[in-house]
Amino acid sequence: MSALMVSARRxxxxxxxxxxxxxxxxxxxGSACSSASAPNSSxxxxxxxxxxxxxxxxxxxxxxxxTDTTFxxxxxxxxxxxxLYGINTQEQVSPVLATSMPTVTDGGxxxxxxxxxxxxxxxxxxxxxxxxxxxxxxxxxxxxSARAVELSAVKTVTVVNSSTVQIHLKQPYSPLTTILxxxxxxxxxxxxxxxxxxxxxxxxxxxxxxxxxxxxSLNQINLVASKDYYGGTPKYSKIVFTVITDPSTCxxxxxxxxxxxxxxxxxxxxxxxxxxxxxSFVAKSxxxxxxxxxxxxxxxxxxxxxxxxxxxxxxxxxxxxxEALSLTLNRSTINKVVFAGVNQPGCGPISxxxxxxxxxxxxxxxxxxxxxxxxxxxxxxxxxxxxxxPTGSINVEQGExxxxxxxxxxxxxxxxxxxxxxxxxxxxxxxxxLFDIGWSGRVDPDQDTTAFYTQGNPDDYTxxxxxxxxxxxxxxxxxxxxxxxxxxxxxxxxxxxxxxxIIYIFSTTNQLAYQKSDTGGVTFTPDGxxxxxxxxxx
Amino acid sequence: xxxxxxxxxxAMLEVAARSDRHWWRRLLRRPPAVIGLVGVAVVAIAxxxxxxxxxxxxxxxxxxxxxxxxxxxxxxxxxxxxGRDVLSRLIYxxxxxxxxxxxxxxxxxxxxxxxxxxxxYYRGAADMIAMRITDVVLAFPYFLLAVGFAAIFGPxxxxxxxxxxxxxxxxxxxxxxxxxxxxxxxxxxxxxIVTGVRDRVILFRHLLPNMIGPVLVQATLTIPGAxxxxxxxxxxxxxERPPTASWGTMLADAQQHLFDDPWLAIMPGLAIFLTTLxxxxxxxxLRDLFxxxxx
Amino acid sequence: xxxxxxxxxxxxxxxxxVASMLVFLGVRAVPGNPAIALTGNADxxxxxxxxxxxxxxxxxxxxxxxxxxxxxxxxxxxxxxxxTGLSITSELAGAFPITLELTILAMxxxxxxxxxxxxxxxxxxGKAADYAGxxxxxxxxxxxSFWFGILLILIFAVKLHVLPASSYVSFLTxxxxxxxxxxxxxxxxxxxxxxxxxxxMRSAMLxxxxxxxxxxxxxxxxxxxxxxxxxxxxxxLVTVATVIGLQIGVLLSGVAVTEDVFGxxxxxxxxxxxxxxxxxxxxxxxxxxxxxxxxxINFAMDFLYAYLxxxxxxxxxxx
Lengths: 538, 295, 319
Hints:
The complex is a heterotrimer of chains A (538), B (295) and C (319). Chain A has helices spanning 2-8, 21-27, 71-80, 129-141, 176-179, 190-196, 247-256, 269-276, 314-317, 319-328, 331-339, 367-377, 393-406, 420-428, 446-449, 467-478, 482-499; strands at residues 51-56, 85-87, 93-95, 103-105, 110-114, 154-161, 164-169, 210-217, 220-225, 238-243, 261-262, 281-296, 344-345, 383-390, 411-418, 434-439, 502-515, 522-524, 530-532. Chain A is of the alpha+beta class and 538 residues long. In chain A, the strands form four sheets. In chain A, strands 1, 8, 9, 10, 11, 12, 13, 14, 15, 16 and 17 form an eleven-stranded mixed sheet that branches. Chain A has a four-stranded antiparallel sheet with strand order 4-5-7-6, covered by helices on one side. In chain A, a hairpin with a 4-residue loop joins strand 4 and strand 5. The two termini of chain A are 36 Å apart. Mean pLDDT of chain A is 85; it is low at 1-47. Chain B is mainly alpha-helical. Chain B has 13 helices and no strands. In chain B, helix 11 (212-235) runs parallel beside helix 12. The two termini of chain B are 23 Å apart. Chain C contains 13 helices and no strands. Classes of the chains: A alpha+beta (538), B mainly alpha (295), C mainly alpha (319). Chains B and C meet through helix 6, helix 7, helix 11 and helix 13 of B and helix 1, helix 6, helix 7, helix 8 and helix 10 of C.
């Protein structure tokens, strides 16, 4: 359970300096990977450039698309394990190994996907429909699969001909295409799967501009330019991914040239800010699909696995008090002071870049109105509350600032720093009052909403939302019409605000920085992934 | 756990016998010791009178003036990442610092000295037991003790104090034991034993007062070790909980502003450094007083 | 001497056994159900708790549990971390070389700086060199290692761009790169060791130079340098042995924080993470291994000390 949750709720802002524990928790999930080098000798260099060293904030799981639960794992896969679809720079799903978007028929129950021709895996074998079926079947059935949940709507996968595959669903599920743009859509070499079985992650072979070479330690992954790639000559002969858990180390290593690229999460916001002023570096920030907010324990009093039970804190009983707390927040101040202004203040779970985004109302700060609401609630002040934050200076500072802003309205909030994975476990178990936490976000809004408001889901900390929230969300899953879905999500977000179980603070952003001399080699997409030339996404 | 190794007990004994009631006057004739004494006094005054001396509350967040540089109007040493006044936080930070240093050392002294006294006087089984306990304590570095307490009871300042106190025990046991062993052979003690004076009287009337000097030196040199240890543990997040101002946590928070505001990291570190330095100067001065051969 | 060594060995084994009991009982002292403590999961069903109790033998009497636990550890089965699901042995195997290298380098730097400084200060007692050396040692003794580390990063990595701030490169992969990464953290730790060594060395040398046989040697007209060097060698070894024995605990504590400052994923970092994650089996393993290392090092130092210092041999045997 805990592994899934870690994957599910990843807090970008928790890349922190001192107790980089979240980092270690994630990092250690996958050391099943041994250090042997790939037997794949065919993937030799034919590239023009040299070695590019890329620093991650935390270590990757086993490099197995079926079991991986880490964000950094996705960055590696983006370059050596392409999927049927990908997310482009406009935060849209676009075909990669598929030739076009899937044809959806049978009232949303049948997805037909045509494959690109002439594509080879990095072991030289050809990509075909059977390979897609083999990969998807593995995602669905492997006991350690982290994909099975997101593919739970899938009934069967069938091969129509060598370049066409069909996915049959149990019920209509419109987020499927977006899910196939993540790790579920990755096609693994059937030859390698047969050879390696569950140890595929030790020598992964997929389609990609770069091929897995070796993993000398948990903290280092080496890729080399692929000679089998369909999409052009790789720019770099070698990509080295290395783990730097400490943001100030990331910054100094970038300055000293020990690393070429700092991947999202590696740099602290202040240091990123300094790099934007440094003419030798390119520093980019993109709004991500993720958000950050305060989860309030409303009806998760007994833990997610139990039926919804009212929590005992004063905010659980009163939507007006939750609104009052929300009204005390000065989002732009928090952003400026704690995050060096890199985030985008916001009041809803859907990214402003998304096609499904409708700007939600975003009131406040309004201390006078907050005071009125508190007074009208007849709860005696100060209202004592505990705000759980993941350990790390940035998170604690954010908590302190929230506490300071809420104080004039009668809230007395004490900040309780808790190690990241422990905080997630406690939150799922309902052992918290307020929890400041983020979600890295997905391109389909369903994955940013439903699970967080449905009792019984380990990602849902706040409890069971009323049907005014859940029913438009459920309807949105049943339709593929973008305009209809957009209206439904706007309804749902308004209802979320009225209910107030999660107070949204920011749309989070991803920061990337690299030496100016490396310009042109990196494509940065809003999902935080880096694609090294030749990129498969536009 | 003290960074300093106990002075040679034999020499100390000689000194204890010689020491007069005006040792502190002789101490004041040593400039380094005086510097140390003054420094310690300054820190003590800051800790005791923090509410009077601080221009601001150490936890008052002021987002409008965050990361103000040193010598800003109204903020002599600037403000931190949440706009809290750095000078006020430094002054308040003296409280947990001294508290940990003194309480941990006191704890070790109060438990360790009687232990060492009894084991050195009776020897035999009592000595065996005391030494084996010391061995076991020595096997656990203070970091490990603090980690263990934090793991069992959750991170807190009292845990840090207890961990450092336990780790400082062996030093006091050893000093008191060595002193007791040596003093026991003195004529007047032997005479008291022969004439049937009760053990309790011998231990507390004859032995204890005569080892005050070496114990005082050990205490003065244990305090800076405990202060450093506490700062280290706070820095790692095993000590005080925010928003309490302590030099260790200030330094930890400052790490993310190492490059845009290095003063935030330099100042609390300097406070820890100077405080430990002053305690060490004072301790060295005291030791020189009791053991001039080593100066 | 043999008697002394055997005695010390017996004492070390005894200490190790008691220390292991404390480590074992420590986790049992965690408030609440030990099954919850061992798994770090506060949200267990009664069935899951029963399964864990069976797996860890928690229903057995404590002595039986202790013996089982000890047997597993002796056979190298440290178990797996409930947080990461990984084998603790493999996690330690990854972290240990970093910590070991850091500790050894720090010791070396400490010895290279501290021993000669102490000898010079003693020989030049009351002269400028003595005062300067003693003052520097006092600074080294008082400076917080983690702050010193931060200052070095600010100076060498940020201002001068001379050295990389950190991240570990294996010595086997690239010795030059490894050393350039390790030099700052090792120096930070080494200065603390050097300060203590210098002060001890100075005292030991002063005492030695006062001894009758040295005076005799001098009276005989032996060259001053020869007299000093002769005593310096033995004294320095004895002092180093004493200081290492006494300082290993402080040094290991310093290693943990230095790893943190320089972003090295050694045993110290592993331990701190384990604390925050309530990963008790990992904490247990680290605590036991560290205690064992301290005990073994102390025994080795006792042995060395006895070998070098005839007085101890006699006293030890007479005890």
